[in-house]
Write a structure and sequence with these properties.
5-stranded antiparallel sheet, 5-stranded mixed sheet
């Protein structure tokens, strides 16, 4: 078993290699925040799943984030296909208290499966919310920048689509640049080796002259995020494996907020318009 980091409240495995799991990103929130409820279904063969059913009368549904994909498994020297469907529901509490998300069920390949109830504690507004157990996608609230992110114009971050997997199971590794300033002329200094994994290149936007970006919130701070590289990786052994970094060199313009009040206005504007050189490894 390979552990990267994981949090699942209910995972059920059935015959025909079907797995149905239900998880939330945190069990305690405030009225100012929301929880992300994730349904995940996978099968080593055919996969036809209905919309999941659940009862959460004390929450409002504010967003739905579906995804459907096939992944490859490298096992016993050969690749096998695995189908997977995920649905993340962003739920906002209506009132404070202790509540349950219950009567969870789904129909997979014509058969009904049920999940265990999930408890959520909702506190009053303004008392602070613990960070989520897992980071989510854009708009759901990411976490984990720590000392490497705060106060920096930009930083790189490796993210995985799952945190616990078995030998030979596929994990998607994505490398992003997070920034609060304009960056350009990004050049790779060192590509990740992903030792202990069989690696397959999926996307390499880093090699293109223009990067797409999206607005995200990481640890309560707003950033623009751009994908630099994405790999499919297949662990070749059991144990704890490390995802090594991607090293880059880039240019960026210093934000106007970095100019001190006592600086000469002309010199401040000149510094703002002068490209800076940065590296991240």
């Amino acid at each position: 078993m390979i552990f990267i980091l994981g949090f699942f409240l209910s995972t059920l495995t059935f015959a025909e290699n079907i797995q149905f799991s239900v998880s939330i990103d945190r069990g305690s929130v405030t009225l100012d925040d929301a929880v992300s409820l994730k349904f995940s279904v996978q099968s080593d063969g055919e996969l036809q799943a209905s919309e999941p059913h659940y009862l959460a009368p004390d929450f409002d549904l504010i967003n739905e984030l579906p995804s459907t994909f096939n992944e490859s498994i490298y096992e016993n020297g050969k690749f096998m296909n695995r189908a997977k469907q995920d649905l993340t529901l962003v739920l906002k509490p209506k009132k404070a208290g202790d509540f349950q998300i219950k009567e969870i069920s789904i129909v997979i390949n014509g058969k009904k499966y049920q999940g265990s109830p999930i408890s959520v504690h909702v506190g009053a507004s303004g008392i602070g919310t613990p960070p989520p157990q897992n980071y989510g996608g854009a708009g759901m609230g990411l976490r984990g920048s720590g000392k490497h992110g705060r106060g920096r114009e930009f930083f790189l971050r490796a993210e995985v689509d799952k945190q616990k997997l078995y030998k030979g199971e596929q994990v998607i590794v994505s490398y992003y640049v997070y920034r609060q300033v304009r960056v350009f002329n990004i050049e790779a200094l060192k590509f990740p080796s992903l030792n202990g994994f069989l690696r397959e290149d999926l996307e390499m936007p880093l090699l293109n002259p223009r990067l797409d970006s999206e607005a995200v919130n990481l640890d309560g701070v707003a950033y623009e995020r751009s994908l630099l590289a994405r790999y499919a990786a297949y662990p070749l052994k059991d144990g704890k494996l490390q995802i090594d970094p991607l090293g880059v060199k880039l240019n960026y313009y210093r934000d106007r907020a970095g100019v001190q009040d006592e600086e000469d206005l002309f010199m401040g504007l000149f510094r703002q318009m002068t490209p800076m050189v940065g590296t991240s490894q």
